[in-house]
Structure prediction request, 100 residues.
Amino acid sequence: MNVQCGVKEVSSPPEKGDTMEQMHTTRQKLVFEIEQLSNPYIMELQNFIQYLKFKQATISALSNDSGMLRPEDDPILGAFGLIDVTPFSETIDHILYSTV
Prediction:
């Protein structure tokens, strides 16, 4: 999918199956576009890149984390005694919102 941005054509993000040549071409286009930016926008772009790297690392960590605890096995919930009553979410709601 291509989107028109002013007079320049912007392509969608590369997919996993893209070839190395396509990735190299995309990188060259990015370098060219970055060279056209003024300093404040380069700093903004750098911040955005840091956000993307954080997002990528977070998604990667979540997808690799198969050790998610079931609520019944969570020691913190057990310490509070919240898993003794089914469903425990009603107990949490009651504790948090009973005085409202």
Observations:
- Residues 1-10 have pLDDT under 50 and may be disordered.
- The beta strands are 2-5, 8-11.
- The longest strand covers residues 2-5.
